[in-house]
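Input sequence (209 aa), recorded before submission:
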Amino acid sequence: MPADIDLTTRVELPRAELPQAEPSVLVIFGASGDLTRRKLIPALFHLAGEGCLAPELQIIGISRDPIDDRDFRAMLKDATAASAEIPHLDEAAWNAFAERLHYLPGDFTEAETYRRLSETLSHQPTANRLFYLATPPSVAPTILRELAAAGLNREQDGFARVILEKPLDTAQADHRSTDESRGQTARLATLRGIRGHLSRPAGGHRRRP
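Predicted structure, token format:
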């Protein structure tokens, strides 16, 4: 007869050490949109709480809305507090995270937007750049062309990566036009159909030991 198994004892497993990302600047196109507010920023806030973001990491949001840094941070705070993925918004943790958030109003189709973005990036503490396209797939070719025209795809002192947020069912539809624009950039790390949005919070915000 098999021995009885004790199912009442709770075993605490050691917590895995999570890696920390390299210092970089994350530029989000479509920064006032639903994807950024409901998914991307809550996920980044969670990663910050886990100690996965480098202290130097800064986030620059771009969209047409005529708002400033303060309005941008307030909007994202409200959205993160309302997110089902964040059980509790710690005020001190948010205030520290919000210092990373910056806003640049601009039209994705205008060269002036990319000129001002280039100027902003030149004052950042790291040359590593991530461009996250939280935009409709149809906008991606324009953004890629303008990034290349402004020289923001060049990898001289750091890396440059583009992340495309594309629903899987539309990836093939505009594959050709996106590839034509991609040919004008140097190196792109393209992630299609992202659904994890960088991380899935499993609980409160705990820092690494």
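Checked by second reader. Residues 31-105 form a domain with the Rossmann fold fold (CATH 3.40.50.720).
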